[in-house]
Amino acid sequence: MKAIHLYSQSGPDQFVFEDAPKPQPGVGEVLIRVHATSVMWQEPTWPETWKTPAGIERQHPIPGHDVSGEVVEVEAGVTGIAVGEAIYALTEFWRDGAAAEYTVARATDVAPKPRTLGHLQAAGVPLVGLTAWQALFEHAGLTSGQSLLIHGAAGGVGSMAVQMAKWAGATVIATASAHNHAFLRTLGADEIIEYTTTRFEEVVHDVDLVLDTVGGETLERSWTVVKKGGMLISVASPPSTEQAKAHGVRSVWFIVEPNREQLIQIGNLIDTGQLRPITERVFPLSEASQAFEQARQGHTRGKIILRVENEE
Ligand SMILES: NC(=O)c1ccc[n+]([C@@H]2O[C@H](COP(=O)([O-])OP(=O)(O)OC[C@H]3O[C@@H](n4cnc5c(N)ncnc54)[C@H](OP(=O)(O)O)[C@@H]3O)[C@@H](O)[C@H]2O)c1
């Protein structure tokens, strides 16, 4: 099969489109014919990309842990999934991913593809949808009437989080540059701050939650906008525990996990018109290098997708 192999963490010739062995599913796993995956431009630098949980170095990993496709083989121990089913999933980060014609996933990570989405749109959902869901509902326990500030609201995680928080009945303040303001209003954001001209900490006070998808200085400047006893979650860089203590704020950093049940709930929101994935651009798999380069610019609206054309 054809696949993208990652040859280094950065630099030219990082992504190579070449032949790769077709993966073999094991017990409890399924083989998926990939229709599309998404780009997570930081993936080449993640430790999980280069080492298995058992500490084995991975030479030329295949990126892309979002997958939308069709189940073509089910192994022993798999229940509730049939060959031919259209599915979507977030697969474990230490595995070879879905920037390939075929990929393998644990059956327990795989959910039916939302019926109202094509594969190209569906591939942009699992990673960012689960990240937003787990941040808002598992870690923050967000409830109706609460307020939150979302940094990077127009991005992959942010655009999901804005919609999910509105669905949950929260008041959403979002940061984005001017060209994304009208877009964010269509997603339901109540207030939008132009972060290039306004210091958000001068206009936002006492929110229940900050969800930071930007990190760095944006994270550092966020402590004072959270009310005492509130929460600051970052998925971009770990918040300082000293700062959390000093400001009387709970802080959370986590790494998203695959979750079939949550993908089913997210799929229901999509199929009932309450959540829509945002696709910035679709590239063919062979142009993964250009796709990652565009994402690396840091101004993607929603997700960049890789379309996989299966030769069989
Ligand atoms: N921990 C985890 O499990 C996990 C899971 C998923 C993602 N992540 C991480 O979360 C981060 C976000 O991922 P993503 O895919 O959502 O990012 P992304 O799509 O690449 O984010 C791009 C967006 O960020 C906005 N942006 C850039 N600088 C900003 C700033 N200073 N203030 C406000 N918005 C700004 C841009 O909006 P404008 O064009 O308007 O500037 C753009 O829409 C990444 O660091 C990623 O690695 C972590």
From TrEMBL:
Keywords: Oxidoreductase. Residues 10-306 form the Enoyl reductase (ER) domain. Signal peptide: none annotated. The keyword Oxidoreductase applies. PROSITE patterns: QOR_ZETA_CRYSTAL (PS01162). It comes from the Bacteria. InterPro entries: ADH-like_N, ER, GroES-like_sf, NAD(P)-bd_dom_sf, Quin_OxRdtase/zeta-crystal_CS, YIM1/Zinc_Alcohol_DH_Fams. It holds the Pfam family ADH_N. The keyword Oxidoreductase applies. This is NADPH:quinone reductase.
